[in-house]
């Protein structure tokens, strides 16, 4: 539990920085990060010298046993009154506006109406200030998930045969991961032929035929942590245009991987990869972000649209893609770890152009 104690202390250090007296955390993912407890519902209150976790009967005994701070049973207390009684000197109550329940916001607003207290809406401060930089134990788990992702890709590649359906590959992959004590980080994407032109295609009953491009976007989740990878294979001789697209996307991704290092602005990295695609005239077909952070959630901090620069300990994807309606799409994606002098690629599957006869 020491790492969760340390995380609570780091959250406590945010209080002065955020100019608030009390932090209210309700998001289940942030609660798990700070407590190590899987809670579908709960409230964590953190001040400069006190920490209280409020849970219901389903979680109370386990929380009392495993959480090294004050744990209270929600059925026996009044939520807002607990805040007012326990944190009497609190002037400002900071809450994660995108994640705090509206009912609790209204309850707090009503409770402090006649008191000298204010509510301060905050962004997802735990994600942006703590979860964005991974600890060694988190990196280890993401590496394990990435290894299972690579193994899942090998399985899917071996199963490719004429007539197999997209959703059949999904089922085989999920069964494999379950047998390894893992689960999906998101709904796997197997897109045959023209279906690959849709970046987030929903795998259905299309059958594989000769000449099809096969886009495989998959990610395993192990011990709560995610991974993400996309590869493209050609089932039979591909169209020359698709070979051109593939090589262009691969060069663009390699450009991004070579530039990624601490202090490199995310927006600049995004633009440089787009400039690489523009050389071949394909940038207009690149319709999504260059990537996203990966951790307890498949999409988390950092965002390529932010003003952030890369920092050591960030884990993110780099995934340029080109999607041409009526022809197909190519996306090449890896999960990477930012290190002192560059990045470590965590997903290892080959990106060499592969034609399956």
UniProtKB/TrEMBL annotation:
- Judging by the UniProt lineage, the source's domain of life is Bacteria
Any GO MF annotation of the entry: metal ion binding
EC annotation from Swiss-Prot or TrEMBL? 3.4.13.9
Keywords carried by this UniProt record: Aminopeptidase, Dipeptidase, Hydrolase, Metal-binding, Metalloprotease, Protease
Mention one GO biological process in which this protein takes part, according to its record: proteolysis
**Known InterPro entries for this protein?**
Creatin/AminoP/Spt16_N (IPR029149), Creatinase/aminopeptidase-like (IPR036005), Creatinase_N (IPR000587), Pept_M24 (IPR000994), Pept_M24_MAP (IPR001714), Peptidase_M24B (IPR050659), Peptidase_M24B_aminopep-P_CS (IPR001131)
Residue ranges of domain Creatinase N-terminal in the record = 7-131
What the entry lists under Pfam families is as follows: Creatinase_N, Peptidase_M24
Q: What class of enzyme is it?
A: hydrolase
Q: Where is each Peptidase M24 domain found? A: 141-339
Put simply, this protein is called Aminopeptidase P
Its gene name is pepP
């Amino acid at each position: 539990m020491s790492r969760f104690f340390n995380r609570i202390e780091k959250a406590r250090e945010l209080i002065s920085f955020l100019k608030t007296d009390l932090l209210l955390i309700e998001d289940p993912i942030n609660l798990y990060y700070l407590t190590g407890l899987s809670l579908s519902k709960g409230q964590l209150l953190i001040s400069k010298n006190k920490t209280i976790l409020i849970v219901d009967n389903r979680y109370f005994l386990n929380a009392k046993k495993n959480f090294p701070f004050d744990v209270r049973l929600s059925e026996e207390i009044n939520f807002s009154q607990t805040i007012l009684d326990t944190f009497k000197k609190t002037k400002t109550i900071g809450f994660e506006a995108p994640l705090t329940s509206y009912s609790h916001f209204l309850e707090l607003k009503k409770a402090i109406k006649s008191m000298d207290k204010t509510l301060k809406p905050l962004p997802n401060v735990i994600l942006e200030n703590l979860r964005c930089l991974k600890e060694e134990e988190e990196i280890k788990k993401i590496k394990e998930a990435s290894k299972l992702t690579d193994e899942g890709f090998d399985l899917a590649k071996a199963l490719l045969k004429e007539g197999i359906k997209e959703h059949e590959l999904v089922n085989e992959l999920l069964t494999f991961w379950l047998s390894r004590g893992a689960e999906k980080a998101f709904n796997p994407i197997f897109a045959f032929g023209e279906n690959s032109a849709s970046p987030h295609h929903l795998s259905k009953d299309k059958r594989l035929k000769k000449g099809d491009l096969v886009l495989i976007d998959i990610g395993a989740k192990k011990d709560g942590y995610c991974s993400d990878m996309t590869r493209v294979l050609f089932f039979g001789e591909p169209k020359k245009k698709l070979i051109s697209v593939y090589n262009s996307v691969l060069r663009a991704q390699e450009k991004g991987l070579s530039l990624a290092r601490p202090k490199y602005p995310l927006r600049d990295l995004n633009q440089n990869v787009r400039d690489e695609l523009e050389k071949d005239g394909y940038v207009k077909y690149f319709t999504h972000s260059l990537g996203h952070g990966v951790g307890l959630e498949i999409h988390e901090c950092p965002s390529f649209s932010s003003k952030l620069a890369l920092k050591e300990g960030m884990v993110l994807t780099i995934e340029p893609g080109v999607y041409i309606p009526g022809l197909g799409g190519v996306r090449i994606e890896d999960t990477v770890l930012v290190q002192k002098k560059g990045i470590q690629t965590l997903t290892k599957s080959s990106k060499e152009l592969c034609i399956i006869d």
